[in-house]
Design a protein that fits this description.
alpha/beta; 8-stranded mixed beta sheet; 40% helix
């Protein structure tokens, strides 16, 4: 094991960091600005706002302002960018860059954090390359002295990609993309209800001039009938194919059609395909009542999602660390996300690859363009293709296998999207798919029926569990379940659920010695709002729940605006797992989060109260404290509320809220729909492979550990892990994994709330190269 590295050894004393937002705005930019400012001040650096992007840098004067901790208070939940963004023609000229360099030197700024798209970042890199020449020219003109040339000899640049289009290569998600998907899905869900009423077809145009990510993922997330994107144009004769598909869907009693068009959509001859053109085609060929909705700038607006706030906060802190560690030889880098891992990549490699995508599209090399977009984009496209086209009975392979799907545990938003995906992929693979209602309890009672392609139409946007789910484990029903499996000739099992699903799979594995019916391939998909399943960083449903918590925290904070100083104590769900409390605190800008995994005592509670009291003596008006429901048996929500009320007398008053089952309900977020859809598709393809491998002499026989797996995301990859091998990694008493990745982000929340803490940065600091081969997710 390498030695752990802590950032306390890095000091920003004597350094000045300038932060600017440039190009099109994106939700989450403010969260990134806040993280840069607070982390910069935390490490004793001076931090400056550069207002209005590069224009402010060129104009100087009061556009470059030193900021304090309070300057970024209450901006986390605000959309757009509070420091402004502008396109700047002057910066494209050497004369403009000369003025910008002069203004930066006057403030002593030699570290720039640029939040923007590829154009903004390319401009920053050029500025860095010219820096020493610009300083020499300024000295020659007498605008700065030779001492300044020596002192400010190097400019360090770190970029963060803020773009709702997700059009920058090298990163899985850019800041703003998830929030834009939220806006799109909100509109699609609303449109679906009216379209259903009138049997209408809706053509939705979404942003994405050069990148089809928003169109593709929203099509996956709402189960659209057809999608047009620039990277994967439809084949010759697409008009006939689309109309045929729409009329087939209507024939299957579907009352509406949704077609999604990216604004940059093209055909295979590079000619534009517009939403009006698609509408006219549907009307003239099929005579359907068709409407066009162009979403436009709605997609850029609104508050950032929980995912974008956490992403931007992580990236902002990583950007400051990268600037502190930079040397004159370090190339300009971009901090980005790969899977669940923060990485640093050379800026110009990413820019080059982004330009290569456009070049490939211009040259009509569309397969290459899709590959260059990265594995996440490829997976989305492949899954959409599999799910959107129903093959005729003659085209389907015949597998003679029956695969059952069931939900176990508490409901989680996104479960239905996973079931829909599993059923449709299973049918495409030639299996007969069976749905089990009410978990293992229903299984024992024979509540099993075959489910068809059309039965799961429209399930992606539904919250809860349509199949019905129970917490009951199979242990006490083993005989009856085995009997039902014999009766229905079940050859494989897909279990979707939380910790109970994990325990159920273990019980089925252990019962194999007594019941050969359980000697079949079994796959489990993690689906629980608590995110407490071992073997995975994320569970289906946790993102939706996190968004519900963050939205509520935003509203609660607003309820106190204009009143006297107030602190809110908020209780979240999660059992013994502190994921929702900790990540909710990070995304909502809370002052403290009490969780079971990190023990605390009365001294710490006292220190937190004193810390808040000091904060409230400044311009800060509101405090937010989150508490996980089982964090401590004695320090209850009431106790903490009473303690804060008593100790804060005369400085602030206190209110408490228990969020309860609101965290479990609601329509699934785009992330949960997409995650559920993709992992269910991958799971069924794995089951198909295992079925072929384990079928011998006319019977199914799977008795290895590897035939009962959990499919989870770990760091950068989706992995199948035998559930038996996860036993040692599990604390069964408290129903949590022994090690949890998000605890590493806990110091981040404390730093951004102005606590002195220790932050392990062992994973940071490695500059990687862009992977151009993009292997499929493991």
């Amino acid at each position: 094991m390498p030695d752990k590295k802590f950032f306390e050894n890095l000091s920003g004393a004597g350094k000045a960091i300038g932060v600017l937002t440039s190009g099109g705005d994106a939700q989450g930019m403010n969260a990134a600005v806040r993280a840069v400012v607070r982390m910069g001040i935390y490490v004793s650096a001076k931090v400056y706002f550069i207002y209005e992007g590069y224009q402010g840098m060129v104009d100087g004067a009061d556009n470059i302002v030193e900021v304090t901790w309070e300057s970024v208070s209450s901006i986390l939940q605000v959309g757009g960018t509070v420091i402004g963004s502008a396109r700047c023609k002057a910066f494209r000229t050497r004369e403009g860059r000369l003025k910008a360099a002069c203004n930066l030197v006057k403030c002593g700024i030699t570290n720039l954090c640029v939040i923007g798209g590829d154009g903004s970042l390319t401009g920053a890199n050029l500025f860095r390359e010219e820096w020493s020449g610009l300083l020499e020219e300024l000295a020659k003109n007498g605008e700065i002295d030779d001492e300044a040339v020596k002192k400010y000899a190097y400019l360090n640049i770190v970029g963060m990609v803020g773009s709702i289009d997700n059009d920058f290569c090298g990163t899985d998600m850019t800041i703003g993309t998830d929030s834009a998907l939220h806006r799109i899905i909100e509109v699609v869900d609303a449109i679906m209800t009216t379209a259903q009423s009138h049997q209408r077809t809706f053509v939705l145009e979404v942003m994405g001039r050069h990148c089809g990510y928003l169109a593709l993922v929203s099509a996956l997330a709402c189960g659209a009938d057809y999608v047009f994107i620039p990277e994967y144009p439809p084949e010759e004769g697409w008009e006939d194919h689309m109309c045929e598909k729409l009329s087939e869907n209507r024939a299957r009693k579907k009352r509406l059609n949704i077609i999604i068009v990216a604004e940059g959509a093209i055909d295979c001859h590079n000619k534009a395909i517009t939403s009006e053109q698609v509408k006219d085609l549907v009307v003239s060929r099929l005579g359907y009542d068709t409407r066009v909705t162009i979403l436009g700038h709605v997609q850029r607006g609104g508050t950032p999602s929980a995912f974008d706030r956490i992403l931007a906060s992580r990236m902002g802190v990583e950007a400051v660390l990268a600037l502190l560690e930079a040397t004159p030889e370090t190339p300009a880098c971009v901090v980005s996300l790969s899977g669940n891992q923060a990485v640093r990549l050379p800026l110009m490699e990413c820019v080059q690859m982004t330009q290569d995508v456009q070049k490939a599209m211009d040259e009509r090399k569309f397969n290459e363009a899709v590959q260059l977009r990265g594995r996440s984009f490829q997976n989305n496209l492949n899954t959409y293709k599999l799910l959107s086209t129903k093959k005729s009975a003659a085209e389907l392979p015949k597998s003679n296998f029956n695969v059952a799907v069931l939900n176990v545990g508490a409901p989680a938003a996104g479960m239905n999207a996973a079931v829909r995906s599993a059923v449709r992929i299973g049918i495409t693979e030639g299996h007969k798919m069976f749905a089990v209602t009410d978990g293992f309890e229903g299984f024992s009672r024979g509540q099993i029926k075959e489910i068809s392609w059309g039965d799961v139409g429209g399930w992606t946007g539904q919250g809860g569990s349509i199949l019905g789910t129970k917490r009951t484990l199979p242990g006490k029903y083993l005989e009856k379940i085995a009997e039902q499996m014999r009766t229905h000739n079940i050859s494989a099992l897909l279990v979707i659920g939380g910790f109970e699903a994990f325990e159920s799979c273990l019980q089925l594995y252990e019962a194999r010695t007594r019941f050969e019916e359980f000697c079949i391939p079994i796959c489990m998909l993690p689906a629980t709002i608590s995110n407490n399943v071992p073997g995975t960083d994320f569970s289906i449903g946790a993102d939706t729940s996190l968004n519900a918590i963050v939205e509520t925290c935003d509203r609660i904070k607003l309820s106190a605006s204009g009143t006297k100083r107030r602190v809110f104590i908020i209780e979240t769900m999660g059992g013994y797992c502190g994921y929702l409390a900790n990540m909710g605190a990070l995304a909502a800008g809370a002052d403290a989060a009490y969780i079971f995994e990190e023990k605390f005592d009365i001294r710490e509670l006292q220190a937190n109260v004193e810390h808040l009291t000091e904060k409230m003596k400044t311009s800060i008006q509101r405090g937010l404290v989150l508490r996980n429901e089982n964090c401590n048996v004695n320090y209850t929500t009431d106790f903490i509320y009473q303690l804060y009320s008593e100790e804060g007398k005369g400085v602030f008053d206190c209110r408490k809220n228990v969020l309860g089952h609101m965290q479990q309900g609601g329509a699934p977020s785009p992330f949960d729909r997409n995650f559920g859809t993709k992992i269910a598709a991958k799971a069924v393809l794995w089951l198909s492979k295992m079925l072929k491998e384990c079928y011998r002499r006319g019977r199914m026989f799977a008795n290895t550990e590897e035939s009962v797996c959990l499919l989870g995301m770990h760091r950068r990859n989706l992995n199948f892990q035998p559930v038996v091998q996860l036993k040692d990694a599990t604390d069964f008493e408290h129903r949590i994994p022994k090690e949890q990745w998000w605890l590493k982000l806990r110091p981040l929340m404390k730093i951004l709330a102005k606590y002195k803490t220790s932050y392990d940065i062992s994973d940071s600091g490695q500059l990687e190269h862009v992977d151009r081969s993009h292997p499929a997710e493991a």
